[in-house]
Amino acid sequence: MRTQITLYGEDSEWFEDLKEDVGEQRDGNEPTNAELARLMMQQFNTDS
Length: 48
What we know:
This is CopG family transcriptional regulator. This protein has 48 residues and is mainly alpha-helical.
């Protein structure tokens, strides 16, 4: 299964800012879009 999303404007900028923030925490190793989405889903999941 594959899911594709498109972000525009401020949402797109916010997503890129989040990628940069995670990259800074990883000593410059920015996550892929899929990795960042997975990290966000893990934080949202209240079961874990």
